[in-house]
Amino acid sequence: MYAPPSPSMPRALPAEHRARLVETAREVSFAPGARLFEEGGRADRFWVIRTGTVELDMHVPGRRAAVIERLGHNELVGWSWLFSPHVWQLGAEATTPVRAYEFDARAVLALCEEDPGMGRDLARWVGDVVAHRLHASRMRLLDLYGPYGAGAAV
């Protein structure tokens, strides 16, 4: 399955904005099998993975949840906090022990209000992640449910 590289925080945010963002973080851990969030739940936080792996999954009626993407070091977990109606579009589960930075969406949005440049850079970063996840979701669903070879990269 082809997927372009995922936009990670170190490459996406200028150093000064990254430093301000990390100041609001708290360190958290998740055991393998722990659910970070469920599709359809209230999105009020997000994470950047320090170590470990998180799988994003999508409910498929009548079937087991489809794994859309595996995320690792420095990748963003959760973008729905930024867009109305602030509801998770996918689910997420730790597949290995995970250590991450957790961010409260309200606190981050307040920072963005104070510093429009930071808000612009953060929105651009999250937008890049959303575009990547949309592509990954489409390719994965074609792999799972489309005609043979429908999801193959050309």
Automatic annotation (TrEMBL):
Entry superkingdom: Bacteria
Q: Which InterPro entries match?
A: cNMP-bd_dom, cNMP-bd_dom_sf, RmlC-like_jellyroll
Domain Cyclic nucleotide-binding span(s) in chain numbering: 9-78
Q: Which Gene3D superfamilies match?
A: Jelly Rolls (2.60.120.10)
Q: Which Pfam families match?
A: cNMP_binding
UniProt xrefs under PROSITE patterns: CNMP_BINDING_3
Q: What is this protein called?
A: Cyclic nucleotide-binding domain-containing protein
| Organism of provenance | Streptomyces pilosus
